[in-house]
Design brief:
It is built from eleven helices and 20 strands. By secondary structure, the protein is an alpha+beta fold. The strands form four sheets. An eight-stranded mixed beta sheet has the order 6-5-14-15-16-13-17-20. It has a six-stranded mixed beta sheet with strand order 8-2-1-12-19-18. Strands 3-7-4 form a three-stranded antiparallel beta sheet. Helix 1 packs parallel to helix 6, helix 1 packs parallel to helix 8 and helix 8 runs antiparallel to helix 9. The structure holds adenosine-5-diphosphoribose (APR) and P-hydroxybenzoic acid. P-hydroxybenzoic acid (PHB) binds next to strand 15. InterPro entries: FAD-bd, FAD/NAD-bd_sf, HB_mOase, RIFMO-like. It holds the Pfam family FAD_binding_3. Keywords: FAD, Flavoprotein, Oxidoreductase.
């Protein structure tokens, strides 16, 4: 099999890249180790920055997003028995849209298949070869058989646990990372959200987040210890803990309902540099992870491939190498802005297992500053809705 750009991974990064390349008249094949059913139903985050919404709309993927996405112009910070709204749109002129990542994935898969694109499911890339030659090869397994995809370039969009990053020789990449001494327990519940906007709560028992997916479905998160067993969290315990951490303002209560899905996600900050080696270009979770507190993961993945799409277009269309050569440096500017913002939001809102009283006071001072200083609130808001230029 041969194509121009071989793409490993059908998450938001790989699928969007394939779509962008198609719009530029460049062929690609996407290899995805999971089934279509699996990737379309994997529950993940759901906040799109203004720039991500604009990208989806501009490239013809925004029709259902326009109908079903929920535009939010603010978020709420809850702490110390008080609730404060950060009016993001008033402060920045921009907004976020709540729309599940798996919905973006469904829309992109539908668009690629409708355009005759090749997305091969249950096709697992096992080895990348010839990356430092003019014709790299992706060795993959499908239906129990070994196959090869020959291409001009490889785009490694295969997430944190993928194979692409590991194909770079030792000593080339540098890793920057931080782990946090807590995880998030995420719950999807058939309960009408009791909020119009997302609520980020700092509580002495730990962080909680109230988000939503639709007028009928709530999405909630609780800070839990890093090695927590999901079996320790029967539904009644989850609701009791959510009530304790979120029902801190008089007269407000959350809505409960059947739990549809629950899982525990570790929190990690991680960046690998550079995001390219020879003919391998890495994007999304394959090269950077943020803790979910800033809601940046999917947005960074889309921003990476927006750059990469233009860079391949310049190479194929005008024989220009400058954008491909500059891809890593350009992408990393946004990546590091999001790294800082995600770390900052995380530090401000979570408690540590062995909490240092000084740190707790600093968190309280930071929260108080955000809700009293328009300058500081604007800093939060412009990062949250996404900076157009970084
Ligand atoms: N061969 C083929 N596919 C692979 C392989 C492999 N060896 N390894 C991993 N994959 C697939 C995974 O099954 C997954 O569908 O690569 C895809 C990577 O997609 P994502 O993990 O969604 O990563 P990305 O597209 O970068 O999107 C980042 O996803 O994890 C969230 O919070 C994160 O929102 C962010 C977004
Ligand atoms: C979500 O709705 O899943 C969500 C929202 C905001 C976050 C993280 C996750 O910061």
């Amino acid at each position: 099999m041969r194509t121009q750009v071989g793409i490993v991974g059908a998450g938001p990064a790989g699928l969007m890249l394939s779509h962008l390349l198609h719009l530029h008249g460049i062929e690609s094949v996407v290899l995805e180790c999971r089934s279509r059913e699996y990737v379309e139903h994997r529950v993940r985050a759901g906040v799109l920055e203004q720039g991500s919404v604009d990208l989806l709309r501009r490239t013809g993927i925004g029709e259902r997003l326009q109908r079903e996405g929920m535009r939010h112009e603010g978020i709420e910070l809850r702490f110390d028995g008080e609730s404060h709204r950060v009016p993001m749109t008033e402060l920045t002129g921009r907004a976020i849209t709540v729309y599940g990542q798996q919905e973006v994935v469904k829309d992109l898969i539908a668009a690629r298949l409708a355009a005759g694109g090749s997305v091969l499911f249950e096709a697992e890339a096992v080895r990348l070869a010839g990356l430092d030659s003019q014709s790299p090869v992706i060795h993959f397994r499908r239906d129990g058989r070994d196959e090869q995809l020959h291409c001009d370039f490889v785009a490694g969009c295969d997430g944190f646990h993928g194979v692409s990053r590991g194909a770079v020789p030792d000593g080339v990449l540098r890793t920057y990372e931080r782990t946090y001494p807590f995880a998030w327990l995420g719950v999807l519940a058939a309960a009408p959200p009791a909020v119009d906007e997302l609520v980020y709560a700092n509580h002495e028992r730990g962080f909680a987040l109230y988000s939503l997916r639709s007028p009928e479905i709530s999405r909630l998160y609780l800070q839990v210890p890093p090695d927590e067993d999901i079996a320790a969290w029967p539904d009644e315990r989850i609701w009791a803990e959510l009530r304790t951490r979120l029902e801190t303002v008089a007269g407000w209560s959350l809505n409960e309902g059947p739990v549809l899905e629950k899982s525990i996600t570790p929190m990690r900050s991680f960046v690998v540099e550079p995001m390219q080696w020879e003919r391998l270009f890495l994007a999304g979770d394959a090269v950077h992870i943020v803790p979910p507190t800033g809601a940046k993961g999917m947005n960074l993945a889309l921003a990476d491939v927006a750059l990469l799409g233009d860079a391949f277009a310049a190479w194929y269309g005008q024989h220009r190498t400058d954008l491909l050569d500059g891809y890593s440096a350009a992408a990393l500017r946004r990546v590091w802005r999001a790294q800082h913002f995600s770390w900052w939001m995380t530090s401000m809102l979570h408690r540590l297992e062995k909490d240092d009283p000084y740190e707790a006071k600093l968190r309280a001072a930071t929260l108080r500053y955000v809700v009293t200083s328009p300058a500081y609130a604007t800093s939060l808001a412009e990062n949250y809705v996404g900076l157009p230029e970084v």
